[in-house]
Amino acid sequence: MAAYGALVSLSHILDQILLHPPPAYHFIFAREQIESLQIRVLSLLDFLENNYSRKLSSKEMEDLESRIADASYAAEDVIESNLRNQICAKSTEENLVSVDMEENREIHIMIQKFLSIEKDLVDNQSTRKASSSPVPLRIGKNTMVGFEDHLIQIMSMLTTDESDRRIIPIVGMGGIGKTNLATNAFNNPFIIEKFDIRAWFVVSQECTGKEILLGLLHQIINTANRNELEMNDDDELGEKLHKTLFGRKYFIVMDDMWDITAWEIVKRFLPDNNNGSRILVTTRLLNLAVDLGSCTPYELNLLDEAQSWDLLREKVFPEGRCPVELEEIGRNIAKKCRGLPLALVVIGGLLAKSKTEDWKYVEEDVTSAVNNEDDELCMKVISLSYSHLPIYLKPCFLYLAVFPHDFDIKMSRLVRLWVAEGFVRQCGPKSLEEIGEEYLKDLIDRNLILVSKIGISGEVKTCHIHDLLSDLCRREAQKDNFLVLSKLDNNKASLDMQRIRRLSINNCHWKDVTLTASIRSFLTFFSMNLSTYSARRSPLLRVLDVVDRYPKDEILQLINSRYVSCTGLISMSSSSILSRLWCLQTLVVGGELTLPSEIWQMPQLRHVQARRISLPDPPSRGEKSTLLENLQTLSIVKDFKCTKEVTKRIPNLKKLGIVCPTIGSYSLSNLGFFHKLESLSLALSGTLGRGNMVFPSSLKKLVLSKCKIPWEDMSIVGSLPNLEVLKLRSNAAVGQKWISNEGEFARLKYLLIHECELVIWESDNTHFPCLEQIHLRTVSLKEIPSDFAEILPLQVIDLYRCKNSLLESVKEVSEERENLGYDALQIRSSVFALLRISVQRGINLALGNGRSRDPYAVVRMSKQILKTRVVRKTVNPEWHDDLTVAVLDPSQPVSVVSLFR
């Protein structure tokens, strides 16, 4: 919902002006007016969060939403334009004597608009009546291709010998087949015979407890006078239901449940007769399913490609086989449905009545074909998930439209963008990022976001969105100018360009379109012409996320920016105006970044990342001191001087990356003062002695490179109580032998050792009690400790360019686990052996270009290319070179050719 997102964003701006002004600038404004406007904004926010019905039913309410969004956007423009003018005036040494009276009048007008909206919103809400339809959307024949195993599992749960009453939740995204599965179970002849009473009720979000009780009673008992039932209150209806069900074995389906409140009223009237009664609940909400509390939720996943093709083929050709000439294109269409059964059924219906020559047009744009078929049936089913979202999640969900189809979205990037856009509302002591991560988890639990990759600790690393949901996002996001996408045709886009707030370029269709002053967010996913989106064209730009090089001078024009991500070499060491970016939160540079000392005067900073960061020392104690309390990410800093003063200035740092040429005077022993640090990456040339090995106990992830720590000193790392991930790279540790000790690495789950000296490893199962994955790459280790067979959580051992003896010992450990009754290990071996090839000489080699006589030999195996030395001026060279290749695939051939330089 654009209106809510605009209000939250405006409240952030007002809060920052009133409570967190930049230390380098003194803003001139009418405080009473800003405070009055903030009161109106917060009042509207609270009203929408607590009283707003998520399912709009009137044109008046839609108009009010549009008014809220427009008023919020206008207020943002007035306030931020004025602040930008003040900052620019101070930077150019112009004088601002007083507040612009015109701006005072504009803010006063804004306040009146919000007062009017608030009154109309309350009046409109009081006259609206809730409406709901208990009739579910049907998709025709209950085809169960791909669901046989699920049906068997559900039938087993319904008919198991346990006699207590059980609630069985089925969870999955809209259109995945929850109702279809429940219907097949409900109508199964064995189930009909097994239960004395069966009842089915579709639960809409606005259903009351009384409506559910009435719906169940109408199916269970025969009553000539339904009006008589409706005259009863909840308790009277509940007593009738309880008496009817008491002592009888019943099976009730509660389909499409969105809220647990009404269920809490009803469940007390459903007796536990100790006779195997069952209640089956379908829902899209994982949290709700968990709250039901009786059985573990049964989660439905998307179909795989084979299952998808089976379902589509049966829908199109129910009586026969698919013609051979249509199978390839049919499989492609099935694949593009991304495993969603409803999409497959809908597209199958379309193909069944289409000419075979039209299949290629469907293949070109499957998603559009699905959405337009059967009166947009699929979109109606999918859109229910959006309609039932809490209002604070709607702008976050709509924002997913900025990403291209099939794009893997980094969780950290998405949350930072939400924060920069102002969608995340501060609540309690949690950081905005923590709240944003909770928003993300909520959307995942609602099956609106799909997880792509999970970290070792269970955290979401990357995610994506189903194509149909992506289209829903795009459709809704373009309302109220919340977002415009490059996929629109240029003519329509040009009409909206003067009002749009966010622009995302997913492809190259808009190479000639320039930005306008209204745009606040600009994201691209391919390289463009810089002149088309110069900061001077959009002076109030808030989010810039591009894959191009972006000059320093352009960045410094983004005075209201909160999120800047670009590539290139950016040096600001001589700049004294970086603090003009007074609300900058995230700065990401895909290259080197040189920062000025005034970086220490920017308290809004939250994340600074680049391939290499040159960070100046903070100002001396005599100068004005500013704490960067919001800074959580700083990576990767070159020659980081970790003085006590630095640790005091950034007390809440969570992620730090450091590269140092030597230990020198960088005070790395002070790293222990970062009491909230969770991830540390440290690369240096030289030995990191025990005196400098002081790490904070809060560390969860540690990456060490070239530190040359003696293996016996790894006990210091092992003593970190919260460490879950340890990566040792490029001689991070040195020595032939590692003897770990009891009580060390108590919570370690992931261990990587790459290019480190290690031949013998002595340990037992008590030293790494939580270890799940071991990755050994290019090490000379002879064998894995045999006691690792008894580490119960251990799942994966990954080997790359290691000795055959190590691989054999890993296999033995896996076999021993099976003998102990544990699961076998997943063994990933990228090397079958190391092959040494001796290249001796060449005889009468053909000249390469008729003149060159400097031959060398090239050995190729798969992607590995090794060269001998060059022997000058001969066609009969003698090399006597030994070359070693890793045998990644024994079926791959080895070739030796001669070349001339």
What do you see in this structure?
By secondary structure, the chain is α/β, with parallel strands linked by helices. 34% of the residues lie in helices and 19% in strands. The protein has 27 helices and 34 strands. The protein has a 17-stranded parallel β-sheet that branches. A 5-stranded parallel β-sheet has the order 2-3-4-1-5, sandwiched between helices. Strands 6-8-7 form a 3-stranded antiparallel β-sheet. Helix 1 runs parallel beside helix 3, helix 15 packs across helix 17 and helix 20 crosses helix 21.
Any descriptors?
901 residues, single chain, five-stranded parallel beta sheet, 27 helices, 34% helix, 17-stranded parallel beta sheet
Structure, briefly:
With 901 residues, the chain is of the alpha/beta class. It is built from 27 helices and 34 strands. The chain has a 17-stranded parallel β-sheet that branches. It has a five-stranded parallel β-sheet with strand order 2-3-4-1-5, with helices on both faces.
3D shape: globular
DSSP strand content: 15-25%
End-to-end separation in angstroms reads 65 Å
Strand count: 34
Number of helices: 27
> Any low-confidence stretches, pLDDT <50, length ≥5?
95-99, 126-142, 488-495
Largest sheet: 17 strands, parallel
| Global Rg | 33 Å
Q: Compute the average pLDDT.
A: 83
Determine the fraction of residues in helical runs and give it as a percent range: 25-40%
Structural class: alpha/beta
Layout of helices and strands, plus pairs?
Elements (H helix, E strand, L loop, with lengths): L1 H18 L11 H21 L7 H33 L9 H27 L20 H12 L6 E6 L6 H9 L2 H6 L2 E6 L6 H12 L5 H5 L3 H12 L4 E8 L3 H6 L11 E6 L2 H7 L5 E2 L5 H12 L7 H13 L4 H12 L6 H6 L1 H7 L4 H11 L6 H5 L10 E2 H11 L10 H14 L4 E5 L5 E5 L2 H11 L6 E2 L4 H7 L5 E4 L15 E4 L18 E7 L2 H4 L7 E5 L2 E2 L14 E9 L12 E8 L18 E6 L5 H6 L5 E6 L18 E6 L16 E5 L3 E2 L3 H5 L6 E5 L3 E2 L2 E3 L10 E5 L5 E3 L10 E5 L18 E5 L3 H16 L6 E4 L3 E9 L13 E7 L2 E4 L10 E10 L6 E7 L1
Parallel strand pairs: 1-4, 1-5, 2-3, 3-4, 9-10, 10-11, 11-12, 12-13, 13-15, 14-15, 15-16, 16-17, 17-18, 18-19, 19-20, 20-22, 21-23, 22-25, 24-26, 25-27, 27-28, 28-29
Antiparallel strand pairs: 6-8, 7-8, 30-33, 31-32, 31-34
Helix pairs in contact: 1-2, 1-3, 2-4, 3-4, 5-6, 8-10, 13-14, 13-15, 15-17, 20-21
